[in-house]
Design brief:
Strand content: 5-15%
CATH topology: Ybab, Chain: A
Distance between the termini: 69 Å
CATH superfamily: Nucleoid-associated protein YbaB-like domain
Number of strands: 4
Strand order of the largest sheet: 3-2-1-4
CATH architecture: 2-Layer Sandwich
Oligomer: single chain
Structural class: alpha+beta
Length: 136
């Protein structure tokens, strides 16, 4: 049996283009992740993929001193970055399939178990669902 290499290459090229189109369409649905401390003093925005794009502070954020402020910013940014990675995973995993899902995980884009995520002092707005309210 002879293989028509041109036909096979065209078929692979079509599948790659279709996958790319589906992935781009799903990525268009992923917006920035915003996190805000429950007291509203500190807020962050992270782009899909995890790049910190904005930090917002109120005068009240400065009351606890530089170390506390830095720790709050870092904690918010870390949580928002995890959520941004989860949004990427959620958007791309259905398109890329099981092997693609492994690659997403290796890049740090992992799903979040919302039941165990520590958001005690945080409210998030993201494409992963409705804003979370802090636990009391």
């Amino acid at each position: 049996m002879e293989i028509d290499i041109d036909y096979e290459l065209d078929a692979v090229d079509r599948r790659v283009r279709q996958t790319e189109e589906r992935a781009l369409a799903r990525l268009d649905q992923v917006g920035p992740i915003t996190g805000q401390a429950s007291d509203g003093a500190v807020g962050v925005e992270v782009r899909p993929g995890g790049q910190l794009s904005q930090v917002q502070l109120t005068p009240a954020a400065l009351a606890g001193g530089a170390e506390q402020l830095a720790a709050r910013i870092m904690a918010l940014a870390e949580q928002a970055t995890r959520r941004a990675g989860a949004a990427m995973h959620q958007a791309l995993a259905p398109v890329l399939g099981p092997d693609g899902e492994k690659h997403l995980t290796s890049l740090g884009y992992e799903p979040i178990d919302h039941d165990v995520e520590d958001v005690a002092d945080t409210v998030f707005e993201s494409p992963l669902g409705p804003p979370r309210r802090p636990r009391r």
